[in-house]
Amino acid sequence: xxxxxxxxxxxxxxxxxxxxxxxxxxxxxxxxxxxxxxxxxxxxxxxxxxxxxxxxxxxxxxxxxxxxxxxxxxxxxxxxxxxxxxxxxxxxxxxxxxxxxxxxxxxxxxxxxxxxxxxxxxxxxxxxxxxxxxxxxxxxxxxxxxxxxxxxxxxxxxxxxxxxxxxxxxxxxxxxxxxxxxxxxxxxxxxxxxxxxxxxxxxxxxxxxxxxxxxxxxxxxxxxxxxxxxx
Length: 231
Description:
- By secondary structure, this protein is α/β, with parallel strands linked by helices.
- It is 45% helix and 11% strand.
- Strands 3-2-1-4-5-6 form a six-stranded parallel β-sheet.
- Helix 1 crosses helix 4 and helix 3 crosses helix 4.
């Protein structure tokens, strides 16, 4: 019997190449109110839940005194823009759907995303993974988003799997920190154009550049190098 019992996937940057769309939505929003949103700003939001990235945007764009642009207002604006971009074109990451389906033939599979449920459900329906990823949890459904471990620990509770028996697939530093804090095995799958630091890669038990590289051997390797383990 496999030591690993479950594989939990992140969504943005893992299942869909969405980081450029998030960047576009935020850049265009900032420009519409005479502000500038940079790639550095974008990296700070990656993996965060809605409350966290909205707070970051308000701070970095200095919107504290801007009418209607509190955290709730910014979140609504960006989510609306993302829904429109997804409706126009959903950029599924190459190999992602196949990776989830392959994992499901050997392990329990789930989704732990920082995105709001409205966006996540659209992605799962569009990719046909809504019937495969039957356990899903989103960043706005836990008190503390990534890099806190809450979303992963809650998902594992629903699966009935201990963290030491599970592996997560993440593209961002915040996501990898979340997995590490949860005590899970880590597969680092950085989104193209958003490289991970050496520090973050060192936390992972496996590192891939494309989801087409996903395999059972990769999962087992990551599961054998959980946080705190050596050799």
